[in-house]
């Protein structure tokens, strides 16, 4: 060990010591590679997460419940990273806004007819789902259980 001109103690030999200090900042060219990997990883994670949410929502669309709302939530996740999803979400929200305003301007009997048509459609989808899922014998058995 020796003292240098500034009075700091340094090692005489230049051999690496058992404990060496590593610079925590990567080189500038390494940082660009890290940024690219980060962006690609983020894009893949968002694509998969949005896809799972959209697929789950589409599976729920024929059933009564929030199927379309879940699809829009998945589209919102995709819109974080993908410009096409952002444009589609903006278009969908505008059309939904137009629909609600149109319904709001209608007379009470039009609103009643729209509600009745929606109820009939949902009942038909539930009946078809039960028919496909349970079959005729399953529906008969379910009816017998519910009547008891």
Salient structural properties:
mainly alpha, 148 residues, 74% helix, two-stranded antiparallel ribbon, 2 domains, single chain, elongated
Describe, in plain words, how this protein is organized in 3D.
- The protein is an all-alpha fold.
- The protein folds into two domains: 26-105, no CATH class; 106-148.
- The chain has helices at 28-60, 67-79, 83-105, 108-147; strands at residues 2-3, 9-10.
- Helix 1 runs antiparallel to helix 2 (67-79) and helix 2 (67-79) packs antiparallel against helix 3.
- The longest helix has 40 residues, at 108-147.
- 5% of the residues are buried.
- The model has no long low-confidence stretch (mean pLDDT 82).
Question: What is the count of distinct domains?
Answer: 2
| Coarse morphology | elongated
Report the β-strand fraction as a percent range: under 5%
Strand tally, please?
2
Q: Structural class from helices and strands? A: mainly alpha
Secondary-structure element string: EEHHHH
- Individual helix count: 4
Taking all residues together, what is the mean pLDDT? 82
Oligomer: single chain
Radius of gyration: 31 Å
Biased composition (Basic and acidic residues): 1-14
Transmembrane segments: 44-61, 67-85, 108-134
Region (Disordered): 1-26
Protein name: TIGR02611 family protein
């Amino acid at each position: 060990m020796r003292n240098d001109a500034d009075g700091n103690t340094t090692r005489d030999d230049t051999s690496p010591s058992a404990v060496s200090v590593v610079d925590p900042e990567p080189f500038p060219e390494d940082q660009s590679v890290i940024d690219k990997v980060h962006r690609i990883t983020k894009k893949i994670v968002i694509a998969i997460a949005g896809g799972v949410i959209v697929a789950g929502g589409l599976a729920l669309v024929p059933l009564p419940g929030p199927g379309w709302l879940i699809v829009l939530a998945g589209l919102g996740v995709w819109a974080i990273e993908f410009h096409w999803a952002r444009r589609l979400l903006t278009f969908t929200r505008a059309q939904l806004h137009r629909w609600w305003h149109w319904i709001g301007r209608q007379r009470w009997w039009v609103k009643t007819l729209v509600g009745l048509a929606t109820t009939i459609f949902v009942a038909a989808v539930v009946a078809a789902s039960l028919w496909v899922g349970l079959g005729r014998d399953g529906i008969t058995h379910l009816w017998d259980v519910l009547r008891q």
